[in-house]
C-alpha cells in the first residue's frame, strides 16, 4: 500500500490537490493505526512542508510498478475530472484544467489516451486562440465526454 500512496501523493502534490500538511496529517493518522508503516514513518520525520515536497519530488515516477502506477493514476484521473470539472466555468479555466489532465496522462503512458490528449491539445489551442470556429467550451465538453468514454472502455477491458 505504501507504493500506491507514494504514487498518489506525488501526483496530488504536483496538481495541488493535496498539501504537504494534508500528507503529514495522513501520516500521523496512519501511525496511530499501524506504527510500522514505512511511508508514514518517513513522512513523520520530515518537519516542514518544504521537506515533504522535496521528498516526493525526488521520487522518480519510473521507479513505480507500472500496473500499480496506472491503476492509481487512472483512479486519480477519474476523481480529478469528476471533482474539478465544476470549476471550469469560463474559457479561461479550460487550459489550466487541460494541463492537469495532460500531466496525469503522462503518468499512464496509454496510446489511446495520448492520441486523445494530442487531438484535444490542438483543438483547445485553436479554439482558445480564435483560429477555429469551434467555441472553446464546446471543445472542452467534447474532451470531457471523450475522456469519460475512454475511461469507461478502459474499465471494461
What does this protein look like?
Helix 1 (2-14) crosses helix 5, helix 2 crosses helix 3 (38-44) and helix 7 runs antiparallel to helix 8 (136-156). It contains eight helices and no strands. It has 157 residues and is an all-alpha fold. The protein starts with a helix and ends with a helix. The chain has two domains: 1-58, no CATH class; 66-155. It is elongated and about 60 Å long. It has helices at residues 2-14, 20-33, 38-44, 49-57, 66-84, 91-108, 111-128, 136-156.
Kindly summarize this structure in a few lines:
With 157 residues, the chain is an all-alpha fold.
Give the secondary structure arrangement, pairings included.
Layout: H1 2-14, H2 20-33, H3 38-44, H4 49-57, H5 66-84, H6 91-108, H7 111-128, H8 136-156
Characteristic terms for this protein:
157 residues; 2 domains; 8 helices; 0% strand
Can you tell me the number of structural domains?
Answer: 2
SSE sequence, one letter per element:
HHHHHHHH
- Roughly how much helix do the residues carry, as a percent range? over 70%
Shape, principal axes of CA atoms: elongated
Round the mean pLDDT to the nearest integer and report it.
89
The Rg value, from CA coordinates, equals: 18 Å
Amino acid at each position: 500500500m505504501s507504493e500506491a500512496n507514494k504514487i498518489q501523493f506525488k501526483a496530488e502534490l504536483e496538481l495541488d490537490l493535496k498539501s504537504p500538511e494534508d500528507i503529514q496529517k495522513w501520516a500521523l493518522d496512519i501511525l496511530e493505526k499501524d506504527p510500522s508503516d514505512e511511508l508514514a514513518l518517513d513522512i513523520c520525520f520530515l518537519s516542514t512542508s518544504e521537506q515533504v515536497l522535496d521528498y516526493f519530488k525526488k521520487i522518480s515516477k519510473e521507479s513505480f510498478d507500472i500496473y500499480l502506477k496506472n491503476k492509481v493514476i487512472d483512479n486519480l484521473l477519474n476523481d480529478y475530472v469528476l471533482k474539478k470539472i465544476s470549476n471550469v466555468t469560463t474559457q479561461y479555466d479550460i487550459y489550466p484544467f487541460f494541463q492537469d489532465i495532460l500531466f496525469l496522462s503522462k503518468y499512464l503512458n496509454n496510446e489511446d489516451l495520448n492520441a486523445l490528449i494530442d487531438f484535444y491539445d490542438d483543438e483547445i489551442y485553436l479554439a482558445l486562440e480564435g483560429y477555429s470556429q469551434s467555441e472553446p467550451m464546446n471543445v472542452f465538453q467534447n474532451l470531457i465526454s471523450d475522456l469519460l468514454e475512454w475511461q469507461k472502455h478502459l474499465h471494461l477491458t
